UniProtKB/TrEMBL annotation:
Membrane-spanning parts: none
Pfam families per record: MORN
Gene3D superfamilies per UniProt: Histone H3 K4-specific methyltransferase SET7/9 N-terminal domain
PANTHER family attached to this UniProt entry: RADIAL SPOKE HEAD 1 HOMOLOG
Biased composition (Acidic residues): 1-19, 239-249
An example Gene Ontology CC term for this record: motile cilium
Keywords, comma-separated and alphabetical: Cell projection, Cilium, Cytoplasm, Cytoskeleton, Flagellum, Meiosis, Repeat
Organism field: Piliocolobus tephrosceles
Protein name per its UniProtKB record: Radial spoke head 1 homolog
């Protein structure tokens, strides 16, 4: 995940006069629409009230950054867009010169965060989209980090659980597009370190997935309309006849391949976790459907043969 685009840029204060062209009030203060060139090279064009930036305006920094939005007494406050020197930008609500409320941040790697902000940080409910993989994190944020209940959505499966410091922790489940679920939990383990690293205080924590249960695949069989009995011949097959046999143990046997212990970290570095497993399962599911069809056909032929006798 990218960090925010750049350090915060300070605007010139109310006591930095600079050059000014525009309206003034009776006291000689900047009041109304005006343009200012500040001593540090920044420029501002917009509304003033009693000598302070107030209302809609555009502030351009000499390094290329700029803010287009609302001001209240020299502070960015209300709706506004800030474009940073590296090209990233924030569009949303501001309070007291900080990102605060609801907003969207567009990162230089094309990732986006859409959600709540609190004193300049991602905080509350939000969605982070990873442009490179198409995965997205939908859930809770605390002080800029992924933390709390969330769903991590990948191309052909998703993970539901809780996160702590960007890592999945505790009970959760993977939901595959093929129709099955893998339940388990993430356990945080310390990464192995060499002898030369033993004195370091920082410890890398790696989440490790342990599967505990696999839910059964729910097979769907279309119900075909039964033809009128008047047209049924003695040798005709009944297209409406179907097997009522439950997949049960056979489907469960196919899913046993998902159980086990793997090192999986569902994040920006791992958007395609379990893709191979789910592809393999697609093939198994197809074979199972074909076998079911053959069984149904043989049972129907036997049933029709008995009727003829």
């Amino acid at each position: 995940m990218s960090d925010l685009g750049s350090e915060e840029l300070e605007e010139e204060g109310e006591n930095d006069i600079g050059e000014y062209e525009g309206a003034r009030n009776e006291a000689g203060e900047r009041h109304g629409r005006g343009k200012a060139r500040l001593p540090n090279g920044d420029t501002y064009e917009g509304s003033y009230e009693f000598g302070k930036r107030h209302g809609q305006g555009t502030y351009k920094f000499k390094n290329g950054a700029r803010y287009i939005g609302e001001y209240v007494r020299n502070k960015k406050h209300g709706q506004g867009t800030f474009i940073y020197p590296d090209g990233s930008r924030y569009e949303g609500e501001w309070a007291n010169d900080q990102r605060h409320g609801h907003g969207v941040y567009y990162y230089i790697n094309n990732d986006t965060y859409t959600g709540e902000w609190f004193t300049h940080q991602r905080h509350g409910q939000g969605t982070y989209l990873y442009a490179e993989t198409g995965s997205k994190y939908v859930g809770t944020w605390v002080n800029g980090q992924q933390e709390g209940a969330a769903e991590l959505i990948h191309l052909n499966h998703r993970y539901q659980g809780k996160f702590l410091n960007k890592n999945p922790v505790g009970p959760g489940k993977y939901i595959f597009d093929v129709g099955c679920e893998q339940h388990g939990e993430y356990r945080l383990t310390d990464m192995e370190r060499g002898e030369e690293e033993e004195e370091e205080e920082l410890v890398t924590v790696v989440p490790k997935w342990k599967a505990t249960k696999i839910t059964e695949l729910a097979l769907w069989t279309p119900a075909l309309p039964k033809e009128p009995t008047s047209t049924d011949g003695p040798g005709q097959e009944d297209p409406g006849a179907e097997s009522t046999e439950e997949p049960g143990e056979e489907a469960q046997a196919l899913l046993e391949g998902f159980e086990g212990e793997t090192d999986m970290r569902p994040g920006e570095e791992d958007a395609d976790v379990l893709r191979e497993d789910s592809r393999e399962y697609d093939r198994e599911e197809f074979r199972y459907d074909m076998d079911e069809g053959n069984i149904n056909s043989e049972e129907e032929e036997t049933r029709q043969s008995d009727l003829q006798d």
